[in-house]
Amino acid sequence: MVLPMxxxxxxxxxxxxxxxxAEGEEVWILANNHPVARGEIEIRDDRIAITVTxxxxxxxxxxxxx
Length: 66
Known about the structure:
The protein is of the alpha+beta class and 66 residues long.
């Protein structure tokens, strides 16, 4: 899922963001559509967090690698 920062900032408390990944899955973290890091989805208490696990590898991203 792609969610522009402007849309994220307009969301209020209780907004629901559907994810196409599950807890424990590795995801790309993008800035201006460029990969900056990899992260892992975690659930802490009643909140979802993404922990940065490593820097992005542009070649993996371009190849569509997980």
